[in-house]
């Protein structure tokens, strides 16, 4: 991909039939779920087409996935991009990050255990902790009594990128209180300059489980491919003791797409980041007082009172995520996905202006 026009080719409603736009009415702009409106990187499309035309039998890596292309591409990328020397043999594939989180919590905690996580937080993670009978602690200044810390970095929904000193402070607490840290780093490739992502495992390798995938940076949510890199030896041993097929794993198309993304699609990602950077700055220009995120493509907007997602969809025809779903601290917020064309984003901002003029927004 050579220029941003190829990324930014959508005008008004994009030709998408996925979940993001399927639930939006004919006059509603979908800005809620974290999918981009941009075309898939051609390198990924070509890789999937080659696989479809080729061998769709059992992949050679299925018997030993830790030595397969997914683990190798992950380790290569971590070293080249972040200077972290990840161990491929400590990698296990999963269908998505939510499954990986549930498996890791199952292996490292028990019902009634306390799990710390910054709030507001990604709703499926909140749901996982509740469904598994774990207790949630959102005050991470004191991790005493906790069994695990779920660290989302870069953070969803705020877009914060934790600094190295902040991560070191969390690592010291994890050591002091004998915690496992489950680090969701799925937005790592979406950090805006001059920011830089620091893998938590590069600070505290023996206690860190890293969860990631190419789905957010390369817009591949439907390919169902994620992985866990398990630093703690006791976690690897616990997983080996489980029945072989209990947790499933990635499929051949998911692996093909992920490897193509991590090895061949960085040009597409750079172009996409240029568009996203422009979009976050456009929001800041149009919404006084708004501070753009340091990573990702989600604007976390404080609209002053609860229930504004419903109001915006009904009155302004903008479909956003209700901040209340993100737990403590999110009640008066909405999350707006700005990974779209300039034309669509401009229309969204115009609608917000009209809603404010009509007295719907404070």
From TrEMBL:
E.C. designation(s): 4.4.1.13
InterPro entries linked: Aminotransferase_I/II_large, Class-II_PLP-Dep_Aminotrans, PyrdxlP-dep_Trfase, PyrdxlP-dep_Trfase_major, PyrdxlP-dep_Trfase_small
Domain of life of the source: Bacteria
Name of the protein in question: cysteine-S-conjugate beta-lyase
GO MF term (any one): transaminase activity
Enzyme class: lyase
Keyword terms of this UniProt record: Aminotransferase, Lyase, Pyridoxal phosphate, Transferase
UniProt keyword annotation of Transcription present: no
Family in the record: Belongs to the class-II pyridoxal-phosphate-dependent aminotransferase family. MalY/PatB cystathionine beta-lyase subfamily.
Organism: Nonomuraea recticatena
Cofactor requirement: pyridoxal 5'-phosphate
Domain (Aminotransferase class I/classII large): residue spans on this chain: 35-352
Acetylation keyword on record: no
């Amino acid at each position: 991909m050579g220029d941003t026009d190829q990324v930014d080719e959508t005008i008004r409603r994009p030709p998408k039939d996925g979940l993001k736009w399927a639930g939006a009415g004919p006059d509603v702009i979908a800005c809620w779920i974290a999918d981009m409106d941009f075309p898939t990187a051609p390198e990924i499309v070509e890789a999937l087409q080659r696989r479809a035309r080729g061998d769709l039998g059992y992949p050679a890596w299925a018997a030993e996935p830790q030595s397969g292309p997914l683990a190798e591409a992950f380790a290569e990328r971590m070293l080249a991009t972040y200077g972290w020397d990840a161990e491929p043999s400590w990698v296990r594939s999963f269908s998505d990050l939510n499954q990986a989180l549930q498996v890791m919590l199952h292996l490292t905690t028990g019902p009634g255990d306390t799990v710390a996580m910054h709030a507001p937080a990604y709703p499926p993670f909140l749901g996982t902790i509740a469904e598994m009978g774990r207790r949630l602690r959102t005050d991470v200044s004191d991790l005493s009594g906790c069994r695990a810390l779920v660290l989302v970095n870069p953070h969803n929904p705020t877009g914060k990128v934790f600094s190295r000193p902040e991560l070191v402070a969390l690592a010291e607490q994890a050591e002091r209180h004998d915690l496992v840290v489950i680090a969701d780093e799925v937005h790592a490739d979406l950090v805006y300059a001059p920011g830089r992502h620091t893998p938590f495992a590069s600070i505290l390798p023996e206690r860190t489980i890293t969860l990631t995938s190419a789905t957010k940076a390369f817009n591949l949510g439907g390919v169902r491919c994620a992985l866990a890199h398990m630093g703690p030896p006791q976690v690897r041993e616990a997983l080996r003791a489980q029945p072989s097929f209990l947790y499933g794993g990635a499929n051949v198309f998911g692996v093909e797409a992920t490897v193509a993304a991590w090895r061949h699609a960085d040009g597409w990602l750079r172009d996409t980041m240029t568009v996203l950077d422009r979009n976050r700055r456009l929001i800041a220009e149009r919404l006084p007082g708004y501070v753009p995120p340091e990573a990702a493509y989600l604007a976390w907007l404080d609209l002053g009172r609860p229930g504004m997602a419903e109001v915006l969809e009904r009155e302004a025809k903008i479909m956003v995520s209700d901040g209340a779903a993100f737990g403590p601290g999110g009640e008066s917020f909405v999350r707006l996905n700005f990974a779209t064309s300039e034309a669509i984003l401009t229309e969204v901002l115009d609608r917000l202006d009209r809603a404010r003029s009509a007295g719907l927004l404070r």
